[in-house]
Amino acid sequence: MAEERPDEEDPESRDTRVSDMILGSSPALSPRLGPTRFSVSVGDKLRDGGWDFGSIWYGIFGDPNSKKSVKRGKRKRARAWYRRRTAQTVIGVIALVGFFFFVNWFMLSRLHDGRVWLRRGFLKNPGAGSNRVSVKVSASVQKHGEPKRSGKLKRKYNGTYGRMLALAVHALVEGQNKPEPKELWREPKEQAAAWKPCADQRTWAPNDGRNGYIMVTANGGITQQRVAVCNIVVVARLLNATLVIPKFMFSDVWTDASQFGDIYQEEHFIKYLSPDIRVVKQLPKELQSLDLEASGSVVTDSDIVKEAKPSFYLKHILPHLLKNRVIHFVGFGNRLAFDPIPFELQRLRCRCNFHALNFVPKIQETGALIVRRLRDNGSHLAPVDPYLVGPKYASSILDKKSGPARKASRYLALHLRFEIDMVAHSLCYFGGGETEQKELEAYREKHFASLAATSKTKKLPSPEELRSEGLCPLTPEEAVLVLAALGFSRNTRVFIASANIYGGAKRIPALTSLYPNLVTKENLLSPSELEPFLNYTSQLAALDFIGCAAADAFAMTDSGSQLSSLVSGYRIYYGGGRMPTIRPNKRRLSDIFFKNNTIEWKVFEQRVRKAIRQTKHVFARPKGRSVYRYPRCKECMCNTIQD
Asked: How far apart, in Å, are the Cα atoms of 450 and each of 428, 444, 456, 529?
C-alpha cells in the first residue's frame, strides 16, 4: 500500500501516531532506538482496538480536569517558558560575541599594513577626487599592459604623481617664508650624542700570520667590496694568516677596472692594521707560481655557507690553508656572520671600516671640493669631515676669507637608489607599460640570469604584492614628495647621489619643479675636474659617499641599499649625534601613495611625518644586524651614559 500524505491522514492513524509519540515507540521519531517488544505489542493492541486509549492516558497522566493536573500543567508551562527564555539568552550572548569577533577581525584586516584596496582594477571610491589626468594615465597603463599578477588583484600602481606634485609645489611656494620643522636638521634624541667612537682600542697582540697567505678578489661595487675587505681582515686574524692586499673583480654591471690602490690608501691600510694582522702587497716569489686551482686552494662563495660562523672557517678553511699555504677567496662577499662572533673580532671589523679604509688623495681632494661648494664655499666643518677627506683637505673646505660672521649654509643629500640594476632586480612595476617590462626583462636576462630563470619556472610575488609589502624602491617622484611633506624648504640645496636614474630624462623635471636648487656631482664639478673619474663607477661612487656622509641631513630611498647603509653608519660613528638620517618606512609609504588620487596635502603631510618619525630611534645594534650600518654597539662605540 502506498504511504499516505500527511494532509490526508485519517483520525485513527493520527491517534496511533500520537500514542507512538507518547510511548516512544515510533522508529521514525526515535532513530537511535529500534522497535522493542513493548512498543510493538502496544501498537498492535491499539491498532486492533483491544485497548482503550483514554484509559491509558488517564492511567499515566491522570484526569486533565482535576486540580492536581491543572497545577502540574502550570508548572510544566512555567518550566517550558523558563527553558525558552534561557535558550534565547544563550543564543543572544553567542550572537553578540560572534558579532564582536567579526567586527574585530574586519577592523584589523582594514588596518593591516600592506593590504590592497583595489578590486578588479577599480578604486573603492572611484569618484572621489579623481581628475582627467589620473583617468588618462590609468587608461594608458591598461592600454600598454602590466606585468602578470599572481593571486587576487586588489589595487593597481599608478606610476605618475601629477596631482600630488602640483599640490606639493603649491604648498612649498605658499610656505617658503615659514620656518622649517626643527627636527629636520638634528638628531631626534639627546641619547645619540652619548655614543662615542672606540673601535680603535685594542687589547691583543698582533698575529704573525704564520699559517699561510690569504688572497681575496671581491666582487660588486664599491660598497660590496668594502664589506668584503672588512670581512676578510677578520678571517685573516681568525686563521692567523697573512693577508695579501685585496683585489677587486671586474663586473659587467659596474664596468670598472679600479683596484684597491685606486680607491683606498694602501700604505695607511697596511700600517693601521699592523697591530692586528700582517698585510703584504703580494705573495712571496716561491708561492707565485703555484697552480691554486689544481691544488684546491680556490674558494668561491658557493663553497661557503651564507653568514658563516667563525667555526666554519676553522673547520673547513684552516686545514686547506695549513696544507697548501695559500687560500684564494674568489668573488668573496658577505660570507661572515655578525653574530655570534668574539668581541675583539667584531671590533676589528669596525676598526677596518671606520679607520683603516681611507680614500686616496685625489678622491679626498675632489670630495672636499664638492662639500665646499655644497656649503656655499665652506661656511662650516662637519664632525665627519677630517675622517672623510683627511685633515689636509678638510681645512680647504672652510673659506677663511669670508670671516666668522657668515651664516652657515646647510645642504640635504638624497641617495636615489633607482639605477636600472636596482629597478630590474626588484621585479617591481613603475608605470612604464610594455616598454618598461621588455627593457627590464632584457636586463635581467643579461645581468641576473638566475633571477630571470627563476621567474619563468616559479610563481613569484606580483608587483602589487611586492609594493604593498614595501619591497619596491621609492621612485624619484615619491622621494621628493616625501621631502616636501617633511617640510624641507623649496630653497633647500639638495645633493643627489647616484645620478644615473632609470628614466632620468623624464623624471628629473619632476624633481627640479619642487627643488630648483637640486645638484649632482656632475653639476658641481667642471669637465676637467670630473675627467679623472669618468668610466670609473666605483671612484664616482666614492665621491657620492663623501657628499652624502658630510651632508647636514641625509635621506635614503632604500634602507636596504649598501651605500645608504654604510653612509648612515659612518654618520652615526663620527657624527657626534648631530647628523640626522631620514630612513623610509616603505611599507607605510606605499599605503599612503596608493591614495595619491584622493588624499589631501595636509593629510599626506601628517601621515608621511608620522611614518618617518617612527624610524627615528636611537638604539643599540639589534642582534645579527650589520655593524657597518648599526655601529651603536659595545664593539664599535662606547655609551658614555651607561659606561
From this structure: 17, 9, 10, 40
Q: Which one-letter amino acid corresponds to residue 352?
A: C
C-alpha cell at 557: 630611498
* CB 508 within 8 Å of CB 477: no
Nearest-angstrom CA–CA distance, 626 and 261: 25
Residue 318 neighbours by CB under 8 Å, 6+ apart: 211, 239
Exposed/middle/buried for 311, CB within 10 Å: 0-12, 13-18, 19+? exposed
| 94-98, 111-115, 179-183, 209-213: which is most confident | 209-213
Nearest to 495 by CA among 536, 474, 525: 525
Residue-level pLDDT at 43: 41
Q: 3-class DSSP state for residue 52?
A: coil
In this structure, the number of other CB atoms found within 10 A of the CB of residue 31 comes to: 8
Residue written as grid cell 670630473 = 530
Distance CA 627, CA 635 (A): 9
Domains by residue range for the chain, with CATH: 13-61 (no CATH), 162-178+405-575+581-615 (no CATH), 213-356 (3.40.50)
583 DSSP assignment: -
pLDDT of residue 113: 38
Strand partners, 119: 122
The C-alpha cell at 186 is 638634528
Name the grid cell of 316. Answer: 673547513
The one-character DSSP state at 302 is G
pLDDT attached to residue 158: 64
558 — pLDDT class (breaks 50, 70, 90): confident
Q: Is the pLDDT of residue 11 over 60?
A: no
Q: Do you know the residue count of the chain?
A: 643
Residue 490 is placed in which grid cell? 623649496
Rounded to the nearest 10 degrees, the angle between the axes of helix 601-613 and helix 162-174 is: 90
∠263-264-267 over CA atoms, to 5°? 140
Whether the CB-CB separation of 380 and 350 falls below 8 Å is answered with no
Q: Which residues contact 111 (CB under 8 A, 6 or more apart)?
A: none
Where helices occur in 291-360 by DSSP H, the ranges are: 292-295, 310-312, 318-324, 343-351
Place of cell 507512538: 20
Q: Helical H runs in 352-475?
A: 361-374, 385-395, 420-426, 433-447, 449-457, 463-468
Q: What is the CA radius of gyration of the chain?
A: 38
At residue 330, the 3 state secondary structure works out as strand
Lowest mean pLDDT among 199-208, 246-255, 274-283, 452-461: 246-255
DSSP 178: S
Q: How far apart are the C-alpha atoms of 456 and 13, rounded to whole Å?
A: 74
Tens-place pLDDT, residues 216-246: 999 988 999 999 999 999 999 999 999 999 9
Beta bridge partners of 415: 497, 556
**Could you tell me the pLDDT band of residue 128, with boundaries at 50, 70 and 90?**
very low
Element (H, E) at 508: helix 504-514
Per-residue pLDDT band at 81 (split at 50, 70, 90): low
Q: Is the pLDDT of residue 487 over 50?
A: yes
Residue 156's pLDDT band (boundaries 50, 70, 90)? low
SS3 assignment, position 218:
strand
The pLDDT assigned to 29 comes to 37
